[in-house]
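Lab notebook, design round three. We kept the backbone fixed and only want residue identities now. Task for the bench partner: fill in a sequence for the structure below.
Input structure tokens:
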């Protein structure tokens, strides 16, 4: 079953109930991480939890209000893909949300072609013969012809995708 999370602020606004009254009822009735959670500075309630709070506040037609809020095109629906409850040593339940992450294909490998005077960068060439600048901690630890893993950053420079070497010409945990 796919369960949707609803923002508490949107729910209070749609029901016409003051936010402070809504918060008091939420604190009385619901359990943190099981019925509601904070995501990006906004409290999100599960459908069941939202319905329980609306019924306790005696809102007019809570089921219709909830369906209207979920069906509204402006509302952001966030599906919870997998909910798993883990019992800890204290006996409390933790709610974990798993969202798919992009799979990393592998490191992009570049070959160092030049060591400029600036000790914070090295000039390298990708396998597609594209010349790039790579930001490093200390370019004195690199040699010409060395293969290094790189990753794209927001700016014009690339970044080293490994730990900075401690010995000249050797990057730890990288074989290419």
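Proposed sequence:
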């Amino acid at each position: 079953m796919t369960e949707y999370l609803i923002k508490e602020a949107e729910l209070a606004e749609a029901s016409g109930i003051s936010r402070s009254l809504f918060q008091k009822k939420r604190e009385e009735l619901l359990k943190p991480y099981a019925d509601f959670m904070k995501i990006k500075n906004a409290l999100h309630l599960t459908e069941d939890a939202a319905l329980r709070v609306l019924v306790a506040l005696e809102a007019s037609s809570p089921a219709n209000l909830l369906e209207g809020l979920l069906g509204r095109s402006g509302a952001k629906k966030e599906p919870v893909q997998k909910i798993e409850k883990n019992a800890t040593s204290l006996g409390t339940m933790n709610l974990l949300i798993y969202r798919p992450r992009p799979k990393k294909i592998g490191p992009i490998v570049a070959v160092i072609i030049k060591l400029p005077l600036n000790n914070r960068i090295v000039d390298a060439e990708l396998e597609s013969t594209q010349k790039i600048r790579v930001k490093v901690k200390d370019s004195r630890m690199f040699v010409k012809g060395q293969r290094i893993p790189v990753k794209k950053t927001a700016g014009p420079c690339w970044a080293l995708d490994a730990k900075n070497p401690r010995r000249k010409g050797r990057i730890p945990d990288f074989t290419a």
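Keep this in mind before ordering anything: The radius of gyration is 26 Å.
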